[in-house]
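Slide 14.
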Amino acid sequence: MAINLEDPKRFRGLRDQVHQVAMNMLRPISRTYDKAEHAYPKELDMLAAMADGLAESGASQGAGAAGVRREERADDGSVVNGSNLASVMSVSEMCWGDVGLLLSMPRQGLGNSAIASVANDEQLERFAGVWASMAITEPGMGSDSANLSTTAVLDGDAYVLNGEKIFVTSGERSDAVVVWATLDRSLGRAAIKSFVVPKGTPGMKVERLEHKLGIKASDTATITFTDCRVPAENLLGSPEIDVKQGFAGAMATFDNTRPLVAAMAVGCARASLDHTRELLAEAGVEVDYDRPAQLQSAAAARFLQLEADWEGAYLLMLQAAWMADNRRPNSLEASMAKAKAGRVGSDITLSCVELCSGVGYGETELLEKWARDSKILDIFEGTQQIQQLIVARRLLGLSSTELK
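Slide 15: predicted structure.
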């Protein structure tokens, strides 16, 4: 198979539409909800309704932030530009507008990606239209998702969940939470499953909302589960514990969400680069793409370096999504895209603040906000260090016990 790294023609209209939404609907309210932390952006309800209408008409394939399943198709050697590619393109454009607002979009939560990744057909139909957040991280758990201690014990026709989850994006606002829990801690990673827990389920409680450095438009919650009974049919995928498969079933979620987080970083970094180029031009600094960097001013040379870094992250993002569309295993590429985009995204936004000096540091421009927002994209869905560890394991063919 060959990959064409230009934007597919079939998605250019979608990309341009989403860009207009980001520019005309997200940018104008970006600072408002950065200052009004935990206030729900009501303007997003209209956007969500528009997205739902387009989705029902089939006019916006992959326009949301939810992950996309690897659909069965004939293996005839043909190349597909599908929903995964459309998703990362649209998410990056939305985050050119505002990352926190994208993360606050109804029915576009990270839990929706988990449902799309591992749910069976009946569950996909039953949970259609549900806004789902995702609860993985726990106090003292660190960056290794396999260390979770939340338990799920089968009791008749329901599982009983006990544990505490922290840093749950949209944890207060969503309709349901996809909770990762273990069926048997003695069996390690293989026993970890995910459960859809509707809001209002007895025993589930939102304890508090976090105050954060960035993405303040998005609520981040701590949620506890105390003898919380969840219908057995809400366990996503198969309830069987396959020791040979190990953690692969649960990790399939990350193969979908990591390219999306890379897309968020790509979009936020692009916003910083676009605005910095404008501010440099106003200050008389010309960025000449036809001359070597060493023959230009220090500011222009640095800007060219940042754009080169951005291009690498952008291409890795496209590759990971394209591979999913074409039913190729993409765990390595998903981690590479997330690692590269997370690191350079944070570096680009902070460097743009530096290049613009006092103007970049003040609240008269959004550059300082983008620098704050971008940092989380190098942290959640697996930190920079964890991504590098995963990439190393894949390249060297080593297991998690062989390379820690």
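Speaker note: Confidence is low (pLDDT under 50) at residues 62-68.
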